[in-house]
Design a protein that fits this description.
Elements lengths: L16 E2 L9 E2 L8 E3 L4 E3 L2 E8 L3 H11 L11 E4 L3 H6 L3 E2 L2 H11 L9 H15 L4 H11 L9 H14 L7 H13 L10 H14 L5 H13 L12 H8 L7 H14 L5 H18 L5 H6 L1 H17 L2
Parallel strand pairs: 3-7
Antiparallel strand pairs: 1-2, 3-5, 4-5, 5-6
Helix pairs in contact: 4-5, 6-7, 6-10, 7-9, 8-9, 12-14
Length: 332
């Protein structure tokens, strides 16, 4: 976990956030400006003795969460990019300014807005794939993998979920393509990915220490001592991605963990919004100034350590960070 990057946030339309309606729910905006771009489809989907519609925004999740609060929707009705609206609240959504459209039009417009969350970014949809990856990494111990995965998707997480875990594992594969690496090193990299944010309470340094301790407790006796120590060192190094590390595997792990910075613009925006929700308690002005300062420092220091990431990822990452800095400063 890179804590300075925990202040990553796409610009919001308001000057701050009101508290979340529950510890599981998203923050709600303290104000709303600009035209409403809410869409709702017909109540066609049966469940729990009623039928449900989908409520979305073409502009921002902030607009969507604010509308949901006014309509009276539970935070538990939020599912990544939409709210499930029971039939008895459909009229309230229309009264709140939502435009009635067909299910097909809603899906097309949500996708065009860039706010559509694809299946690969939904923990429930990637669970089976991740557990298969765990079995390949540490065969015969499925219970450990299931317990670790449950912690990744615990309450209060928005970015640091199993989606982040899956993306780090995918980037490790990409960076290692064609490389010849001893089996123990490959396993250490992948287990470090599984454990590097298994504890996430938003406390710099402490989270990494507890995550490393969790890996040692779970994996003791299952790995050679030297291999387990490498897992622990890689996890601890993520407390500060700007620090040097003597671990030979660190450049690959560092770049895989920060590969999100080079994501396509739509994914980068969803990522930064999700991390912002994890830090909704940070005042907006403090967030913007601190975030812009950190991003400028990253651009000055260089983002990646491996030749592959520098060549293939750094140009896109610099565009993403530069655009976010400009947006953060324009909003101040």
């Amino acid at each position: 976990m890179l804590y300075p990057l925990s202040y990553e946030g796409a610009p919001v339309q308001c000057t701050g956030f009101a508290p979340a309606l529950s510890h599981r729910g998203p923050p709600t905006p303290a104000c709303q400006t600009g035209p409403m771009t809410l869409l709702i489809d017909p109540p066609l989907w049966p469940a729990h003795g009623t039928r449900f519609s989908h409520l979305v925004s073409e502009t921002s999740l902030d607009e969507l969460h604010g509308a949901a609060e006014r309509i009276g929707l539970s935070p538990r009705a939020f599912d990544r990019d939409h709210y499930d609206v029971p039939e008895h609240l459909h009229r309230a959504a229309l009264d709140a300014g939502a435009l009635a459209v067909s299910a097909g039009e809603l899906t097309r417009r949500l996708r065009a807005s860039g706010l559509r969350v694809p299946a690969r970014e939904r923990p429930r949809r990637i669970r089976r794939r991740l557990l298969s990856a765990w079995e390949r990494t540490l065969p015969g111990h499925p219970g450990i993998g299931e317990a670790v995965l449950a912690d990744w998707d615990g309450a209060g997480r928005h970015y640091h979920t199993s989606v982040h875990l899956a993306e780090v594992l995918d980037r490790l594969e990409e960076l290692d393509a064609g490389a010849t690496r001893p089996e123990g090193e490959t396993r250490a990299l992948r287990l470090a990915a599984w454990y590097h944010d298994v504890v996430y309470e938003g406390v710099p340094g402490r989270d990494e220490r507890l995550s490393a301790e969790r890996s040692a407790a779970d994996l003791a006796g299952l790995l050679p001592a030297e291999e387990l120590d490498r897992v622990r060192r890689l996890i601890l190094a993520t407390a500060d991605h700007t620090a040097a590390s003597g671990e030979r595997l660190w450049p690959v792990f560092h770049d895989a963990d920060l590969g999100i910075l080079a994501a396509p613009p739509d994914r980068y925006r969803r990522y930064s919004q999700a991390v912002r929700r994890e830090y909704a308690h940070v005042p907006e002005e403090a967030f913007r100034s601190g975030r812009a300062r950190i991003l400028r420092g990253l651009l000055e220091d260089g983002l990646y350590l491996t030749g592959t990431a520098r060549r293939d990822w750094e140009p896109a990452a610099r565009r993403n960070l530069g655009a976010e800095i400009a947006a953060l400063e324009d909003a101040r």
